[in-house]
Amino acid sequence: MKSIDCRTFATWCEDLEDRELDPVMKSALEAHRADCPHCAEVALLTQRQRRAVHSLPRRNVPLDLAVGLRVVASKELARRRAHRDFADRVGGWRASFAGWMREMWRPFGVPMAGGLASACVLFSALMPNFAPQAGTIEDVPAAWFQQAEVGALSPFGVNLDQITLDVRIDSTGRVIDYEVPAGENAWTKNAATRRTVENNLIFMQFEPAKFFGQPAGDKVRITIRRSQVDVKG
């Protein structure tokens, strides 16, 4: 074996006290220490440091540190086993996916089940309101707008062949105003005739107009003759 230099001795100096050290190597290191004063001093300092370290009080390892080290070691062992062959890899992936699904769905399981049950109850309660209703035979669709009509004539007659008026009727069927079309207002100059016409309007009964089946006001043109009344929109 080659002679040991100072650099090699500094590297192996701490192993001089090791019983497992190769005897040939150990004898070479001791021979160099005996020949080199500097390396002998280094060996002495190293020996003192070892004794000082051994003389320190022994500290107990914290329990959480020991548990943590065991967890890290078990994970590393499982990782090495998982990468041993393809079957072990597939098994590791399957176990990882199962754990991920379990940890993911556990916080959402109960709220999701409650929400689904509530949705089913609300849907069952509201569904009858949206069911199509069968139409009855007696139901007659009303027109959008129905014109006002004369319900009953006045007992008073007029002394003219015919008089045309534009009558405004409210939603109760009462006359609230009237107008005389242009060119047919010659009789308005006669006070007696005008009074007779107004009396006829007061005692006439009208059926109000209807908009979607509801009473509404309207304006109609009527022609009063001696024997009848004609109504125009």
Write up what this structure looks like.
By secondary structure, the chain is of the alpha+beta class. The protein folds into three domains: 6-55, no CATH class; 65-107; 145-232. 48% of the residues lie in helices and 17% in strands. The strands form three sheets. It has a four-stranded antiparallel β-sheet with strand order 4-3-8-9, with no helix packed on it. A three-stranded antiparallel β-sheet has the order 1-6-7, with no helix packed on it. The radius of gyration is 58 Å and the shape is rod-shaped. The chain starts with 5 loop residues before the first helix and ends with a strand.
What topology emerges from the helices and strands here?
Blueprint: H1 6-12, H2 23-35, H3 37-55, H4 63-82, H5 86-126, E1 145-146, E2 149-152, E3 162-169, E4 175-179, H6 191-203, E5 205-207, E6 209-211, E7 214-216, E8 218-225, E9 229-232
Antiparallel strand pairs: 1-6, 2-5, 3-4, 3-8, 6-7, 8-9
Helix pairs in contact: 2-3
In short:
By secondary structure, the protein is of the alpha+beta class.
How many distinct domains? 3
Overall strand count: 9
H and E string? HHHHHEEEEHEEEEE
What is the molecular shape?
Answer: rod-shaped
- By oligomeric state, this entry counts as single chain
Number of helices: 6
Tell me the strand percentage band.
15-25%
Strand order of the largest sheet: 4-3-8-9
* Average pLDDT score: 76
Q: How many angstroms separate the termini?
A: 134 Å
Rg, rounded, reads 58 Å
Largest sheet descriptor: 4 strands, antiparallel
Query: Which regions contain 5 or more consecutive residues with pLDDT less than 50?
Result: 135-141
- Residue share in helix: 40-55%
Give the helix/strand class: alpha+beta
